[in-house]
Design goal:
It comes from Anoxybacterium hadale. This is PAS domain-containing protein. This protein has a five-stranded antiparallel sheet, with helices on both faces. Strands 7-8-11-6-12 form a five-stranded parallel sheet. It is elongated and about 110 Å long. It is an alpha/beta fold and 465 residues long. 45% of the residues lie in helices and 15% in strands. The protein is built from 21 helices and 14 strands. The chain folds into four domains: 107 residues, PAS domain (Beta-Lactamase); 170 residues, P-loop containing nucleotide triphosphate hydrolases (Rossmann fold); 78 residues, Helicase, Ruva Protein, domain 3 (Orthogonal Bundle), CATH 1.10.8.60; 54 residues, no CATH class.
């Protein structure tokens, strides 16, 4: 019996072709110059082509026709080595393609064998698995906190702290820029704690005239001042009994009332305006500000002793520009909310999303929410395109970022700069996040998070995020 090597060499072309045609993976054979010599039946089915139309065609022609992009054979010709990539065909199927150079006796490349395997179903299963895992981890981490997006590590940490604070009765100070969601976090603390069955009372300390805020907070007795009710009135501290009082814009509280608030926190009782009797109270106090209270303390505009009483446990909410991972999910949620409210079916173009990702959002979540509502109203048709965006957002996105250098930067800044450059180069070469993840040796969710962090989402297909 002939050995395996001789038996294989005895096979004729006519005998090999049926074998290659029976293989489920697509097979392309090109010569060293990139002209197609032969393809199998699986290639015809996968790329929707005919063998007779492809044989003799150059890889550049096949690329220009969009049969595959990029051509792995061309990459092998350029780099003179085995190449493996993940890409898509015309139908959007995900393909794993490997190109292998075949060399002759003189070590010169004579042919290129390219094999392609359809991995669409595998990727879909992987996406489903990741989705289930993300939902499970989300349920574990954020049960009862569905009102807030926390895809970014910084907001995830905020949610974790909020959960822990819900179980205790400590005084909380929430800080952050205007529009980041300080009121939402305050309500979450209340609604997930043991006071949730009792009132949540909010007061904006900067919205009430100075001569009225004391009576609003602490109430007044009959005849306390001209125009007062005959039987007096409960203040908000009494109204919030057994519940939570949320003092928003606490930095705007007048100094004379800061003294009174300090006494309330220390003694757990209030005295109505015009009254002499002390009324015991049982409330949790949460305050919030968009200003630097410690700086106000140094300037003599805020009492130091009150600051430390309020700041028992601080929650700092990062601005939206520092948590880009949260922007796309917020856009989707606000879009769905407005579609439901307005009985519309509008979608937002991936290029428009890329521009919104570049905008710094000085008004934070509130501004994003308002912009989406505005786009829903002002956009004709069912698709929101870049031209539908407000001019100030488009102009902001078109301003080039200054050239970055590691010189004069902290170690973290230098590492961030280097990471961004690596991602940028990978995104320019590979147009899907999964391909980038494979090249960089990290998970696909990590690539998505990093692309959003560095505002590079326009470099890949948004549907792939």
């Amino acid at each position: 019996m002939a050995n395996g090597k001789n038996a294989l060499s005895d096979l004729s072309i006519d005998e090999l072709i049926p074998i290659l045609d029976s293989i489920s993976d697509a097979i392309f054979i090109d010569d060293a110059q990139g002209f197609t010599i032969w393809i199998n039946k699986a290639s015809e089915e996968l790329y929707k082509i005919k063998r007779k139309d492809i044989i003799g065609k150059h890889v550049s022609f096949l690329e220009s026709e969009g049969i595959f992009t990029p051509s792995v054979a061309r990459l092998v010709m350029e780099q003179k080595k085995e190449i493996t990539i993940i890409h898509e065909n015309k139908d959007g199927k995900r393909l794993l393609t490997t190109g292998i150079p075949i060399v002759d006796a003189k070590n010169k490349m004579s042919k290129i064998i390219t094999t392609t395997h359809d991995i669409t179903e595998l990727i879909n299963l992987q996406n489903e698995l990741e989705s289930v895992q993300n939902k499970l981890s989300g349920l574990n981490a954020q049960e009862g906190f569905s009102d807030i997006i926390a895809n970014s590590p910084s907001m995830y940490n905020v949610i974790q702290l909020t959960r822990r604070l819900s179980d205790v009765d400590s005084t909380v100070l929430i800080t952050g820029e205007s529009g980041v969601g300080k009121g939402v976090i305050a309500k979450l603390v209340h609604e997930n704690g043991n006071r949730k069955e009792f009132p949540f009372v909010k007061i904006n300390c900067g919205a009430i005239p100075e001569n009225l805020i004391e009576s609003e907070l602490f109430g007044y007795e009959s005849g306390a001042f001209t125009g007062s009710r005959k039987n007096g009135k409960k203040g908000l501290f009494e109204t919030a009994e057994k519940g939570t009082i949320f003092l928003d814009e606490i930095s705007e509280l007048p100094l004379n009332l800061q003294v009174k608030l300090l006494q309330v926190i220390q003694e757990r009782e209030i005295t109505r305006v015009g009254g002499v009797e002390s009324i015991p109270i049982n409330v949790r106090i949460i305050s919030a500000t968009n200003r630097d209270l410690l700086a106000l303390v140094r300037q003599g505009k805020f009492r130091e002793d009150l600051y430390y009483r309020l700041n028992v446990v601080p929650i700092s909410i990062p601005p939206l520009r520092e948590r880009p991972e949260d922007i796309i999910p917020m856009i989707r949620i606000f879009l769905n909310q407005n579609n439901k409210k307005m009985k519309e079916h509008k979608e937002i173009d991936s290029k428009a999303i890329a521009i919104l990702m570049k905008y710094p959002w000085p008004g934070n979540v509130r501004e994003l929410q308002n912009i989406i509502e505005r786009l829903m109203i002002t956009t004709k048709g069912t698709n929101i395109h870049p031209e539908n965006l407000p001019s100030f957002i488009i102009e902001s996105a078109s301003i080039p970022e200054p050239a970055a250098s590691a010189e004069g930067k902290s170690l973290k800044e230098a590492l961030d700069h280097a990471e961004r450059e690596i991602l940028l180069k990978a995104a320019e070469k590979h147009k899907t996040t999964r391909a980038i993840a494979k090249v960089l040796g990290v998970s696909q969710p990590t690539v998505v998070r990093k692309l959003q962090k560095y505002h590079l989402t326009e470099k890949v297909e948004i549907s792939d995020l």
